[in-house]
Amino acid sequence: QLQLVESGGGLVQPGGSLTLSCAASGFTVDQYARGWFRPAPGEEREGIACYSAGGSIALFGGSVRDRFAVWRDNAKNTVNLQMTSPKPEDTGVYFCAKSWGRECLGPSADRYDYWGQGTQVTVSS
């Protein structure tokens, strides 16, 4: 059974750092691409980052490109998102998702078929 579980959310101060982790069962990091999403105005979810099965990284959106990083741990079957210098507007529920295929094909949620339950991130002083 395919399952994704996010962890690591919580309260973080502006300018701090927070790392989110996405663990999966039923598939591995080298089988399908895995992405990170969060809510956005006018959209249900916006893509933030993606890690392809082959090891390529995609970061979506100028607001996060210089502040967020994504990497994977093959042994733990996790794809992790590090938020540095978070801002209050980064507050929201962060989701990870499994892609239909191996490649990162853009930030659209339509390209992902399994989702985790999300983890809340609150950026506040």
Quick recap:
This protein has 125 residues and is mainly beta.
Q: For the terminal residues, how far apart are their CA atoms?
A: 40 Å
Q: How would a textbook summarize the main sheet?
A: 7 strands, mixed
- Share of residues in strands: over 45%
Q: How does the overall form come out from the CA principal axes?
A: globular
Gyration radius, to the nearest Å?
Answer: 13 Å
Task: Give the % helix.
Answer: under 10%
Identify the quaternary structure here. Answer: single chain
Average pLDDT across residues? 93
The total of helices stands at: 1
Structural class: mainly beta
Poorly predicted ranges (pLDDT <50, ≥5 residues)?
none
Q: What's the helix-strand series?
A: EEEEEEHEEEEE
Number of strands: 11
Can you put this structure into words, describing what you see?
The chain has one helix and eleven strands, in the order ββββββαβββββ. It has 125 residues and is mainly beta. Strands 2, 4, 5, 6, 9, 10 and 11 form a seven-stranded mixed β-sheet that branches. The radius of gyration is 13 Å and the shape is globular. The N and C termini lie far apart (40 Å). The relative contact order is 0.31.
Key descriptive features of the protein:
mainly beta, four-stranded antiparallel β-sheet, 1 helix
Note the topology.
Elements: E1 3-7, E2 10-12, E3 17-25, E4 34-40, E5 43-51, E6 57-59, H1 62-65, E7 68-73, E8 78-84, E9 92-99, E10 112-115, E11 119-123
Parallel strand pairs: 2-11
Antiparallel strand pairs: 1-3, 3-8, 4-5, 4-9, 5-6, 7-8, 9-10, 9-11
